[in-house]
# Entry
Amino acid sequence: MNKKKTQSEETKSRIIEAANILFSQRGYHAASIEDIASATGVSKANIYYHFKSKEGLFLTLLDQYEAEWKSLWAEQEQLYESTTDMLNGMIQAGLERGFHHPLNRAAREFFEEAWGKSEEGCRQIAIKTEENRVFYQRLIQRGVDSGEFKPVNTSDLGRILEGMFRGLGDSSQDLSLEEAIRLYRVALDALLYGIRASDLRKN
# Structure
């Protein structure tokens, strides 16, 4: 890697680090590109060169968070034998990592603003929603293939799980972490009862 490219990557990393801190402290609306430029000593033009927009910069932070979560979950999912245990473990690990994450407030503000107002924001929300749906669909299919769940339309169940967890995320903001985990598990148990293989339902 040549010196110019190395400097460019270092500048980009500094911008991301400062943006992470400022968005976490102030929220999405209150943190400005001017603030980030001041914190890094990087010009606004240079920030826009790397990220095109404030929205693009914030989406980079969300992508980074998601990549870290996927890496963590790839290690943890090997610990579970049943799909039910895996889903409950995912709730536990996901909420423990993300429930009090500093970017939560900024993320809520961003999605509220992006939905219906920003073409790129809506596109990114749709992409992330579909990725989650496919992820849950694969988990349900795993349970069907193992005989843990009865044959179901896994695409529908993936969509239902995605919507259910997203809705619970919105409605559990005033709860403690322990209360949120309990709420998620109650909802999951109710859903899985309907698709659990009949011989397992009796246990």
Remarks:
- The chain has two domains: 1-51, 54-194.
- The domain at 1-51 is CATH 1.10.10.60 (Arc Repressor Mutant, subunit A).
- Residues 1 and 7 are 10 Å apart (CA to CA).
